[in-house]
Amino acid sequence: MDGGSASALFLLDLVKGMIALFIVVDPLGNIPIFIGLTRNMDDAQRTSTFRSAVLTGLLLLFAFALAGQQILNLFGISIDSFMVAGGLLLLIIAVRLLIGGGWQEPSSSPEGLGAVPIGFPLLVGPGAITTTILILQSSGILVTVFSVLLTFVIVWVVLRFINPIYRVLGRNGALVVTRLMAMFIAAIAVQYIVNGAKNLVQQ
User: Fold this and answer.
1) Contact of 83 with 193, CB cutoff 8 Å
2) In whole angstroms, what is the distance from residue 26 CA to residue 133 CA?
């Protein structure tokens, strides 16, 4: 394979990897949830929270890009078990959002809230980790690392402009949309649990 063909194949794999990862991370679909979680913060606190979320998600996916299967093997965990556990965690988050309209953690710092639950598992959950491992297996380490990096550059840009969206929605609008999106998170969580459990039973 000559240099031009190799470069074209690399770019194709990179675009495919980025699209798959961006769809799973879904920062656009999660905007109402992020707004609801940070509705009591000022602009500086919200920026600090999102910076922490992006760094947490980026480091997690880098870790799984470099040694994803080895990490799971180290603890004797299968992808399917990870999906069930992640689905349960997402379901708890969805219930708390539906009942309280937000993630009520009075003692949590903006950085702590950014790490959990925004960075993990809302941005980087079982789906994103599984997708990263699959990209690694199919396209190699270089494509995986660049896919993760470029995806989170886009995530940061989306979060950077979330304040104007918050001002348009307002407090009540954010609460309504947050509860609506929490229903979708609950449905996704149940699907993770069902798929993981089904695969475990089949094994």
Assistant:
1) yes
2) 18
Q: DSSP secondary-structure letter at 130?
A: H
- Of 62, 50, 190, the closest CA to residue 118 belongs to 50
| d(C-alpha 107, C-alpha 88), whole Å | 24
Closest CA to 30 of 70, 68, 57, 2: 57
Query: What string of pLDDT tens digits covers the 203 residues of the chain?
Result: 566 788 888 999 999 999 888 888 888 777 877 887 887 888 888 889 999 999 999 999 999 888 877 887 888 888 788 778 877 877 887 787 777 655 555 546 777 888 988 998 889 987 788 888 878 878 888 999 999 999 999 999 989 988 787 777 776 776 777 777 778 778 878 887 898 899 889 87
- CA 97 to CA 80: how far, in whole Å? 26
Tell me: cis bond preceding 27? Omega within 30 of 0 counts.
no
Reduced to 3 states, what is the DSSP secondary structure of residue 151? helix
CA 131 centroid distance within chain: 11
Query: Cα–Cα distance between 27 and 17 in angstroms, integer?
Result: 16
> How many C-beta atoms lie closer than 10 Å to residue 10's C-beta?
15
